[in-house]
């Protein structure tokens, strides 16, 4: 039974009575799974209950168990990699051990955030393998094991890696390769307005910068005024190293612009490559919109014309007065 990637399902009405604890004291070995770095605590597993989809078990009984780790502190759509991976994979193993069917295997292609960890299920093709090991230079921890499989957690993945799961069945050595691709998710979204105060009808610029992301392929940056989409751009390119993604939009100020916040959303969609959906939003920016101010140059010209007209009229009146005086 394959163990691949899955987006979490809606919580069901019942499920295992697991609980998250701030500390891990008092739990028996094998009944806890510690969370990812930064999440201080562990999950206490109630192994006497069947596994149902729930907020603590983000996978459904679809006939094919699937692994999709997410952060315990962040919604699934915000961070598709994190502490859930260990828990989900462990429960998958508990659910399926001793089934007597074909051994399930982990996904061969994995997307992992730079510096994050990944749970690897190393499963042999026979029921009684010899020398079942995971070959890697990275730090790893054995989470659990049975005769046919071992569950490892691999730490600090900072570049693309190949992990080798090797074992011997009936005297023949076999190897399975796990290809890990590192990605750099959008951690910051920076919105800049060229002006904080503009007059109606004035041109201004909105710039959104997403620093150090890779791959650019699948990254969409959207500029918003309130909930209205002003402009969006989907990037292309398969560069493996992080780059800044910049979107610039020129627009004219309207009176209603001052009634809404401007913001920028960055969404990285890695689902087609075995990953998840990462979503970040900038801090909102406000634009002050003023009524247009008369052009100073035009005011000067109008003033000069008025003065000339006054002088001309004065001159004409003076001439008429002199003519009348000379006639009398």
Automatic annotation (TrEMBL):
Residues 107-188 form the Intercellular adhesion molecule N-terminal domain. The chain crosses the membrane at residues 298-319. This is Intercellular adhesion molecule N-terminal domain-containing protein. Pfam families: ICAM_N. The keyword Disulfide bond applies. One of its GO terms (biological process) is cell-cell adhesion. It comes from the Eukaryota. Residues 1-37 are annotated as: Disordered. It comes from Bos indicus x Bos taurus. Belongs to the immunoglobulin superfamily. ICAM family. InterPro entries: ICAM_N, ICAM_VCAM, ICAM_VCAM_N, Ig-like_dom_sf, Ig-like_fold. Gene3D superfamilies: Immunoglobulins. GO terms for cellular component: plasma membrane. Keywords: Cell adhesion, Disulfide bond, Glycoprotein, Immunoglobulin domain, Membrane, Repeat, Signal, Transmembrane, Transmembrane helix. The lineage of its organism: Eukaryota, Metazoa, Chordata, Craniata, Vertebrata. It is found in: Membrane. It is a single-pass type I membrane protein. The keyword Plastid does not apply. One of its GO terms (molecular function) is integrin binding.
């Amino acid at each position: 039974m394959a163990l691949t990637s899955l987006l979490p399902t809606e919580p069901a009405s019942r499920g295992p009575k697991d609980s998250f604890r701030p500390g891990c004291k008092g739990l028996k070995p094998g009944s806890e799974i510690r969370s990812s770095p930064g999440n201080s605590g562990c999950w206490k597993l109630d192994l006497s209950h069947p596994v149902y989809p729930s907020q603590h078990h983000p996978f459904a009984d679809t006939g094919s168990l699937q692994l999709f780790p997410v952060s315990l502190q962040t919604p699934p759509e915000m961070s598709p990699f994190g502490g859930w991976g260990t828990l989900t994979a462990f429960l998958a193993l508990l659910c399926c051990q001793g089934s007597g069917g074909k051994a399930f295997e982990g996904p061969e292609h994995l997307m992992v955030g730079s510096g994050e960890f990944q749970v690897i299920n190393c499963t042999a093709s026979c029921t009684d393998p010899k020398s079942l090991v995971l070959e890697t230079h990275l730090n790893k921890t054995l989470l659990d094991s049975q005769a046919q499989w071992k569950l490892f957690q691999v730490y600090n993945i900072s570049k693309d890696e190949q992990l080798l799961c090797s074992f011997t069945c009936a005297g023949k050595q076999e190897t399975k390769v796990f290809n890990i691709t590192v990605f750099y998710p959008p951690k910051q979204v920076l919105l800049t307005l060229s002006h904080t105060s503009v007059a109606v009808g004035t041109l201004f610029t909105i710039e959104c910068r997403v620093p150090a992301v890779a791959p650019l392929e699948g990254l969409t940056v959207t500029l918003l005024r309130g909930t209205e989409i002003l402009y969006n751009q989907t990037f292309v390119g398969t560069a493996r190293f992080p780059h800044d993604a910049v979107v610039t939009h020129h627009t004219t100020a309207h009176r209603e612009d001052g009634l809404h916040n401007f913001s920028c959303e960055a969404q990285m969609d890695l689902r087609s490559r075995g990953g998840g959906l990462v979503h970040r939003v900038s801090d909102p920016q406000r634009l002050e919109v003023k009524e247009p101010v008369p052009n100073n140059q035009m005011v000067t010209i109008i003033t000069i014309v008025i003065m000339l007209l006054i002088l001309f009229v004065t001159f004409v009146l003076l001439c008429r007065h002199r003519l009348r005086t000379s006639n009398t």
